Amino acid sequence: MSTAIGMASRRVQARTRGGSLGLLRSTGIAGLVSAAVIAVATVLAVFGPLVAPYNPDLPSLGQAFIGPTGAHILGFDFEGRDVLSRLLAGAQSSMIGPLAVVAGAMALGTLIAVVTAWRQGPVDTVVSSGLDILFAFPGILLAVLAAAIFGAGLTAASVALAIAYMPYVARVLRGAALRERGQPYVAALEVQGASGTSICLRHIIPNMLPLIVAQATIMFGWAMVDLAAISFLGLGVQPPTPNWGVMISENEPGILQGYPLPALAAGLCIVGVVIAFNVLGERLFEQAQAASR
Amino acid sequence: MSGGSRLNSLPDRGAPSEGQAVTVPAGGEPLLSVKNLTVLLPVETRERAVLRDVCLDISAGEAVGLVGESGSGKSMTARAIDRLLPKGAQVQGQIRFAGSDVTGLAGSQLRAYRNRVAMIFQDPRAHVNPVRRIGDFMTEALRTNLGVSGTDASRQAADMLSQVGIEDAQRRLHQYPHELSGGMLQRVMIAAALLTEPALLLADEPTTALDVTTQAEVMAILDELRGRYGLAMLFITHDLELAAAICDRTIVMYAGQVVEVRRSELLHSDPLHPYTAALAAARPDIGQKAARLRAIPGRPLSAFEAPATECAFAPRCRFAEDACREAVPPLIELDGGLSRCVRVTELRGQLEAAHA
Amino acid sequence: MRWRFLARRLLMLIASLLIASFVIFGALYLAPGNPISALSGGRALPSASLRVLEARYHLNQPFFAQYWYWLENALHGNLGISITLQENVSSVIAARMWTTGGLVLYASLIILVFGIGSGVIAALRPGVADTSVLVSTSISAALPSFVAAIVLITVFSVKLGWFPALGNGTGFWSSVRHFTLPAIALAISSLAIVARVTRAAVREEADREHVQTAISRGIPMRQVVRRHILRNAAIPITTVSGITIASLIAVAAVVETAFSLNGLGAYLVQAAESKDLAVVQGISLVLVTAFVLINAVVDVLYAVLDPRVALGSRAQ
Fold first, then answer.
1. What is the pLDDT of residue A7?
2. Which of B84, C55, C95, C230 has the least C-beta neighbours within 10 A?
3. Are the C-beta atoms of residues C158 and A260 closer than 8 Å to each other?
4. Residue A246 pLDDT > 60, yes or no?
5. For residues B148 and C261, what is the distance between their CA atoms, to the nearest angstrom?
6. B152 or B4: which carries more pLDDT confidence?
7. Above 60 in pLDDT, residue A27?
């Protein structure tokens, strides 16, 4: 009977052998570069405002849209603020929203997936049908609705997106949870008297961890795009808080006047970080699928 | 190698017909003639031989079995004959059908050749398009290549379905593949193959994926139709018994090479190669008790693992001597058969006893 | 057998719409304060207007009765009155529907033609065509529509002057010119996804055994490609195209805002900003309905294309 535990722990060990560094190394060059970009963005999210060379919040209208100079490599935005400083400071609000969305959607989605996969039967059918129906709400639409009710802001938008993403997470993870549920070691543990909760928490979820991490990574990219879009629309992060999405919309008039740099620079930041998350997420996904075979 | 008492349910083969000699038929060239066929495939950036120096002949109306384990090259031989090799394959040697060379055909000539040679495959469910109806599948070649009208083609298809033992043909023609069982689907595939009235049927393990009872039925149908239409057939299988049951001659392949060609009824009583003897011995006899199942020591070699400097079977052969390791043995003609064993003349007679 | 599938799908469609409409309606009560303040968007209204609102929304009745009245009105085309514009929400929607519809249609055409087209070409002609499609889709897949919008405006409108940057245009051809950049911005990342899925699906089908059967029977290659490879690959291609097009409906709001088009999405955003709840509810209902309908059509198409589908939905 201890073979069941042995089997289960071997599975978990096999996954975590080499630790997270080993996992990262196996994602190849593209994965490593992406991880580096993400690391930089994270550091900026924490220390951005401190690293910025100039005050990102002080408007100086006389300098609006002046192009790059020696001291200000990216020039000035529509209110005369240094673009580079705005970008560095904007990392914070641009990254924290997606983090909240991913945390919420993954937590809820994992819970629902594991519970429905464990219980199966009518609970599973009802919840699954419910989730299928919830797919009717595109994330942005729900966020707009939330903004109309609760007022524009990052919190409302993040919560709305988390709710909108959750059915997708639940569906993807439910498949994996069902597969784990069907493994022989689970039956062995049940026979030994282990409770459903402990099996789920100590064995099923840890074995799903590669997939969860991969899904979370990819989802961060999607959340970032959606939240930046919502901020672009004016319903997310509110000015004057620096934010990449807001920077695009507030500097858009500059494009028509021949000063595209502030808006484009903000766009580039978004795209760069999103690509990094996509690439890393896809690599992690491949690994997770290979490991589960 | 599987075995079994399926033989009891198969029709009596009877003696080979008059005038049907074994290697070179009297009265002209054989229908299919393969000489020194070597096929190279790119395997992990290197060129590897998957078939070496394969020679075989099939006369019109003759049934020839092609037996071997996985990796022996039997499927590859059939694909080479039907020009279905994967991209990048290099073909050396000669394949002649009805007197003309086949390896260089292209375009409409290749399609005309494919009308005269039909192939049926191992897994019918994978080989039939799941989104098209059975009638569409069966009549496609007739309508496209032979210009037969839709209604005529359907009529012929329905007729052929009843010949393979499927009743209610009209309804079946309108069904989709997933609505039919594996055995029925295989019969459909056989029926479809025969609609274009080919001269040669290549059957690549047509019954391996089926259960035993269905196997027997499909074999019976194949045998009957072959007789009725006078088809030549190359029957590929890993089962020595099965091949012997409906084929006049049997060819045994190992590691991409032909190692024996023999009249089927003599294959057990008087084999000409230690590998054949060992294969036959490995089949458990239902009447006997044995403490251990007889197996051939070692594992079967794939064609591209076979050495070019010695007999491929030597490492596993209980009769191997130094002479066997000096060079690749040539095919030796003997008693109406062929053998790739240098010691065949002295070993004859002992091979049968080896598995007693 | 297929009828059971269709019936079940229809049931799910209606359930989705009911639940979505319920959520949209219920938003009224989720708002801080009471429904009156939510409907008036925090504005101070004369008591006569307040009484009109009360009567129209049956606010003195139980919750479900209110929902029922609201839904009934909606089905009859009466979606309430916009606080900010003092107009019927339905007439506002009707006026702007064609902008959004045209934009989504234009973008869908781009996705279908260039997405599926390049995917098929990349799959059937390996080599330069394949590599260039792979590279370009990798880049464009990561371009969110609003970033694509500003890039397109910068390059094609300001620098090259080929297309106008903002506004709807008047008349057919002018509108087409005005809508081209927005449609491209809307389509570009979806196009990449569709192209990749198409390429993968066609390559996978080309490797299948039933294709070998067709070739072994001497069917000409062109016909094999058409009747066996593409026909079978159409199943996943249709599915992914359908759900990508459905998702355009929500993202159109972003593109409309970026290009100052007066579509439903742009107005939805403005209404949300000014807390004009009736408008938000009305437009949300229309957009969600369109989204759900398109998804249902995709499911039905899937069942039509794949005879193996019996009872489950494409999701299973």
1. 52
2. C55
3. yes
4. yes
5. 58
6. B152
7. yes
ipTM: 0.85
Rounded to an integer, what distance in angstroms lies between the CA atom of residue A228 and that of residue A235?
A: 10
Cα(C289)–Cα(C264) distance, rounded to whole angstroms?
14
Q: Quick count: other Cβ atoms within 10 Å of Cβ C281? A: 24
Contact between B130 and C223 using a beta-carbon 8 Å cutoff: no
Tens digit of each residue's pLDDT (9 = 90 or more) over C81-121: 777 777 788 888 888 888 899 999 999 999 999 999 999 99
Q: What is the pLDDT of residues B300-344, one digit of tens each?
A: 787 777 787 888 888 888 888 888 888 888 888 888 888 888 888
Q: Quote the minimal CA–CA distance from B144 to chain C in Å.
A: 7
pTM, two decimals, is: 0.82
Chains in contact with C, counting 3 or more C-beta pairs less than 8 Å apart as contact: A, B
> What confidence tier does B353 reach under pLDDT thresholds 50, 70, 90?
low
Taking an 8 Å cut-off on Cβ atoms, the answer to whether B127 and C228 are in contact is: no
Residue of B nearest to C233 (CA): B131
Summarize pLDDT for B28-70 with one digit per residue, the tens.
678 899 989 999 988 778 888 889 889 989 998 899 999 988 8
CB-CB: which of A133, A234, A267 is closest to C16? A133
Q: What is the C-alpha to C-alpha distance for residues B46 and B151, in angstroms, rounded to an integer?
A: 51
Mean pLDDT across B92-117:
89
Please identify which residue in the block is written with the tokens 């419910």. A130
Q: What is the pLDDT of residue B5?
A: 36
Q: What is the pLDDT of residues B181-198, one digit of tens each?
A: 988 999 999 999 999 889
Question: With contact defined as beta carbons under 8 Å apart, do B263 and B336 qualify?
Answer: yes
Minimal C-alpha gap between B92 and chain C (Å):
21
Q: Report the residue of chain C nearest A141, measured CA to CA.
A: C250
Provide the sign of the torsion angle of the four alpha carbons B331, B332, B333, B334, taken in this order. Answer: negative
Q: How many whole angstroms separate alpha carbon C154 and alpha carbon C174?
A: 20
Answer whether B112 touches C (CB < 8 Å). Answer: yes
In the predicted structure, residue A82 carries a pLDDT above the cut 60? yes
Cis peptide before A240 (omega within 30 of 0): yes
Average of per-residue pLDDT values in chain C = 85
Amino acid identity of C206?
A
pLDDT digits (tens, 9 = 90+) for C24-65: 888 777 777 777 777 776 677 777 777 777 777 777 777 787
CA distance C137 to B41: 33
Contact B196, B146 (CB under 8 A): yes
Q: What is the pLDDT of residue B99?
A: 84
Chains that touch A (3 or more CB pairs under 8 A): C
Alpha-carbon distances of A205 from A88, A213, B259, C20, rounded to whole Å: 37, 11, 55, 32
What is the rounded CA–CA span in Å between residue A109 and residue A135? 13
Q: Is the dihedral of CA C5, C9, C15, C18 positive or negative?
A: negative
Beta carbons within 8 Å of A169's beta carbon, 6+ residues apart: A105, A106, A108, A109, A110, A113, A215, A219
Structural domains in chain B, sorted by start: 29-247 (3.40.50.300), 251-285+294-355 (no CATH)
Domains and CATH numbers, chain A: 21-44+81-291 (1.10.3720.10)
Q: How close is the nearest chain C Cα to the Cα of B275, in Å?
A: 32
Does the beta-carbon distance from A232 to C254 stay under 8 Å? yes
Backbone angles phi, psi at A228, to 5 degrees: -65, -40
Q: How far C193 CA lies from chain B's nearest CA (Å)?
A: 25
Interfacial B residues in 263-322 facing C (CB < 8 Å): none
In whole angstroms, give the CA distance from residue B126 to residue C227. Answer: 16
Q: What count of other Cβ atoms lies within 10 Å of the Cβ of residue A178?
A: 16
Kindly determine whether residue A267 and residue C150, on different chains, have CB atoms separated by under 8 Å.
yes
H-helix or E-strand spanning residue B293: none
Q: How many helices (H) and strands (E) does chain A have?
A: 13, 0
